[in-house]
Amino acid sequence: MTAYDPSAEGAQMSFAKDMSYIDYLALDPILGAQNRQSDSHDEMLFIIQHQTSELWMRLALHEITVARDELARGNFSPVFKMLSRVARIFEQLNNAWDVLRTMTPSEYTAFRDNLGKSSGFQSHQYRLIEFILGNRNAAMMKVHAHRPALHHMLEQELGRKSLYHVALDQLAAHFDVTFAPDVYRFNQPHMADPVIMDAWAQVYAAPDQHWPLYELAEKLVDIEDYFRRWRFNHVTTVERIIGFKRGTGGTSGMKYLRKMLEVELFPELWNVRGQL
Questions:
Q1: Distance between CA 89 and CA 92 in Å, rounded?
Q2: How far is it, in rounded angstroms, from Cα 260 to Cα 251?
Q3: Which of the four pLDDT bands, split at 50, 70 and 90, describes residue 233?
């Protein structure tokens, strides 16, 4: 049997002068960025899991940022597509914990000291995702003070309306109402407001009459649903591998992560279900 030759069908085989797959994706720096700090075999898994998570977060930020801008313009259709994609990205991030959970406590202990004080707690992209979605806490910016450009980026985000703030603008405009100014908390997490919940209740009571807002609400709930699963699986993965030790970055470890499970990004959208 003759070996298959793609060039016989016209496939380009020489890229001395043209951009190749490796060039387009900049694979040389990406695949050369797994710099283990120990001789441990399992450190490679730890590095790649976190690097790929950061890449998925990069895409989530790209989608959420544009979705917020489009929503502010009232362009609901592209927003729905982008938010659906973000939910799937969070599902992808969630699935990554399954791979990391193949690491045993003994295997992680073999290189944990080599991490120094570095920790996922310090991810500026994760922080930015939280800020854009509405879980805002200015105190969390302190860990980024040593990187002025990143700190400034986060500071700028705190000066903008969150994705949920923009959704509330559309809700208010639809019903020709004005929400109280303190609803728009720029430096703190959003808190449930009864007037907002009543407005969402009207949407859910007659979805056919308010379909764009009804679909928007469900897209937001979908995002938070997957986001919660991601955080929950983070908790169980950490508990499985290090138990109740303190985090490498100095946090209380499991205690801190479990506290994050209590955060609600869009509280009215969850609470309104009991009001219907």
A1: 5
A2: 12
A3: confident
What is the three-class DSSP state of 263? coil
DSSP the chain: -PPP-GGGGT-----SSS--HHHHTTHHHHHT----SSS-TTHHHHHHHHHHHHHHHHHHHHHHHHHHHHHHTT-HHHHHHHHHHHHHHHHHHHHHHHHHTTS-HHHHHHHHGGGTT--GGG-HHHHHHHHHHT---GGGGGGGTTSHHHHHHHHHHHTS--HHHHHHHHHHHHHT----GGG--SSS-----HHHHHHHHHHHH-TTTSHHHHHHHHHHHHHHHHHHHHHHHHHHHHHHHHTTPPPTTSS-THHHHHHHTT--SSHHHHHGGGT-
Mean predicted confidence (pLDDT) in 21-41: 96
Tell which residue, 132, 150, 54, 64, has the closest CA to residue 93.
Answer: 54
**Residue count (the chain):** 276
Q: Which domains does the chain have, with CATH numbers?
A: 40-274 (1.20.58.480)
Percent of the chain topping pLDDT 70: 92
